[in-house]
């Protein structure tokens, strides 16, 4: 049988926040994880109602649930499809899962042992999975449109030109028609190469991120008439392959957004390394826009910005967007350099 010291050791060893709550909803004990998760000290929580750890809008409803649970307490595992939130001392909320286990502690009195698990990371991953699925679907739609609107139409036109070329009797007209067919074929080849670079940038593997970004900027100028003034340091070897792809895609998205929506004809892009990170900045002096809070970024209108945030976060980096109507837009991305670890004090 465990004595009090053993009980405390097991209680504190739990990876989840643990609370012991009596029949009146008063917190009688908590472990170290609970102190860390909620930000309250032990003294601030012991003897207080468990509703202190809930948002104001949930407290009345929770009191009713607690009363009903007290009438017929039984173990309740985590999950169960419940969307629950806990309140931290600083006023922020976190998504949680909670399991309940009725028990008799302290002279046989009824208590409930509550295990609380922070599922913020799981929720972010679920959101990211949804975004990745949506991104893949959007990419398929984009490829379908490109293949139909550009390449299929080009091939149909080439077929017609070849037939006309075969039927042409005049030598001069035949040579001019042949030149037009050759020009169309060359244009189609360039379009295919541009699409391939968009899917899998070969320069990124062969020449590094600076050269790969240079290819993007040339394509953007060809397609949109949009000039990128680039100041790119050589950062090859400072990024692992995953971080390099993430930064490449972030800059690609930011530059394409500027070309399509900023209503100006140019932007400035910088790339450099400092303090254990590789940083890229994309700045335009265009029309700007109202940037919503993080919860609204998942909508269609801001899907690209949300994707840039997620790409940066996945490799341990950060992304900041500064913009407002009429004041242009600046996107700053930073990803950790290869093998860099912050100095420990």
How would you sum up this structure, described in words?
This protein has three domains: 4-118, 2-Layer Sandwich (Beta-Lactamase), CATH 3.30.450.20; 120-199, no CATH class; 201-345, Histidine kinase-like ATPase, C-terminal domain (Heat Shock Protein 90), CATH 3.30.565.10. The longest helix is centred in the middle third of the chain and has 48 residues, at 120-167. The chain has ten helices and ten strands. The chain is α+β, with helices and mostly antiparallel strands and 345 residues long. It has helices at 4-13, 32-38, 42-45, 56-71, 120-167, 171-199, 202-206, 209-224, 241-261, 303-314, and strands at residues 17-22, 27-30, 84-87, 93-105, 109-118, 227-232, 266-274, 277-284, 318-323, 329-336. A hairpin with a 5-residue loop joins β9 and β10. It has a five-stranded antiparallel β-sheet. A five-stranded mixed β-sheet has the order 6-7-8-10-9, covered by helices on one side. α5 runs antiparallel to α6. Helices cover 49% and strands 21% of the residues.
Key terms:
single chain, 345 residues, alpha+beta, Beta-Lactamase, Heat Shock Protein 90, 3 domains, 5-stranded antiparallel sheet, 5-stranded mixed sheet, 10 helices, elongated
């Amino acid at each position: 049988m465990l004595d009090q010291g053993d009980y405390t050791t097991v209680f504190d060893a739990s990876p989840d926040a643990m609370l012991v709550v009596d029949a009146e909803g008063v917190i009688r004990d908590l472990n170290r994880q609970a102190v860390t998760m909620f930000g309250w000290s032990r003294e601030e929580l012991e003897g207080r109602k468990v509703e202190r750890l809930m948002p104001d809008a949930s407290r009345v409803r929770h009191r009713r649930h607690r009363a009903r649970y007290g009438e017929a307490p039984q173990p309740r595992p985590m999950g169960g499809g419940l969307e629950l939130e806990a309140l931290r001392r600083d006023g922020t909320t976190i998504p949680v899962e909670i399991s309940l286990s009725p028990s008799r502690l302290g002279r046989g009195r009824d208590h409930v042992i509550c295990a609380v698990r922070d599922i913020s990371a799981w929720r972010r991953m679920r959101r990211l999975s949804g975004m990745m699925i949506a991104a893949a679907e959007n990419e398929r739609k984009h490829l379908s449109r490109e293949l139909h609107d550009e390449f299929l139409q080009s091939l149909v036109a080439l077929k017609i030109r070849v037939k006309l070329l075969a039927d042409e009797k005049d030598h001069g007209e035949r040579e001019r028609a042949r030149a037009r067919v050759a020009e169309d074929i060359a244009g189609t080849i360039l379009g295919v190469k541009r699409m391939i670079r968009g899917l899998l940038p070969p320069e990124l593997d062969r020449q590094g991120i600076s050269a790969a970004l240079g290819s993007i900027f040339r394509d953007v100028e060809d397609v949109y008439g949009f000039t990128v003034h680039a100041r790119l340091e050589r950062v090859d070897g400072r990024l692992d392959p995953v971080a390099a792809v993430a930064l490449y895609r972030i800059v690609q998205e930011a530059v394409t957004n500027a070309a399509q929506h900023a209503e100006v004809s140019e932007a400035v892009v910088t790339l450099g390394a400092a303090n254990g990170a590789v940083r890229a900045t994309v700045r335009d002096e265009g029309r700007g826009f109202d940037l919503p809070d993080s919860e609204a970024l998942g909508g269609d209108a801001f899907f690209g910005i949300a994707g840039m945030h997620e790409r940066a976060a996945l490799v341990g980096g950060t992304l900041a967007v500064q913009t407002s109507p009429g004041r242009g837009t600046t996107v700053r991305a930073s990803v950790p350099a290869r093998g860099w670890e912050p100095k420990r004090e």
